[in-house]
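Risk register update: the risk of archive-format incompatibility is retired. Evidence:
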Amino acid sequence: MKKILVTGGAGYIGSHAVVELAQAGYEPIIVDDFSNSKQSVLAGLRDILGHDVPCHDIDCGDADALRGVLKQEGTVAGVIHFAAFKAVGESVQKPLAYFHNNLGSLITLLTVMKEQGIENLVFSSSCTVYGVPDQLPVTEATPTKPASSPYGRTKQMCEDIIHDTAAAPEAGLRAILLRYFNPIGAHPSAKIGELPLGVPNNLVPFITQTAAGLREKLTVFGDDYDTPDGTNVRDYIYVEDLAKAHVVAVRRLLEKKASEAVETFNVGTGHGNTVLEVVKTFEAASGQKLNYSIGPRRAGDVPAIYADATKAAEVLGFKTETSLHDALASAWKWQQALGEAKA
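Archived output:
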């Protein structure tokens, strides 16, 4: 059974990827410092999989700690790198923290991977690398424009670092960059899901917390964009579908099927929904009436972006399977489970 190191594996997307890796016959090894996740996730993973997942509570920006993990675990076939700060708004307020953490952890990881002879990397990138695109949908060939936030710039820079590292003589690195759109929802078991610490930065957990009475109301940031109803348009992908894309990418690297040292794929549904469409669909999926109001635009937000998912379908054989309605229903089920857990 091949071991896959998963940095940020106790986080939202990472924990779902851990489940899919384990169910696909791999042995995931979690590295997470729990700066933006909770230890309770490990219990959720145990409930789903029926066994504990090895977890090392370290910062993957700490080279010596990372070396210690690899010495303890033995041969690792590949790495999925999720660990990063990821809030667009916060990055505008704290740019240096984002550059230090997101670039530093990747550089440390690549350095240690080279030392240990680990060649395969799946990198958690983002559609923010496209900036404000001239045309929609965006393909992998869409030019990257200046990012709208420091967070987006860190993802652009991380992609550049990976390309340059793979192009260096005797690099020994093969990588797949997965450019996510907007992950939503929770595992069908409601044992793991999005678990923001403090006030949520993402739309769906703010919606579910508002519906549960934990937040007074949802603020929709702007209704004067050039979109069908004036609110932001995003491509919302069910987190379990997104997690499965990582298994496909890992398998492609391990089977040496990649056509070049670094491959890039959009991972989205291929269509966009406005914020208000998400609100209305949530109300239909949950039976809850949502208290929301329109507020000013939020710094760093792109008006509209959604994927052309053709390349992932044709090259990886990956397509999303879950509707917006069903993804939002899973998010509400997760929120309800959290409420019961608190009680």
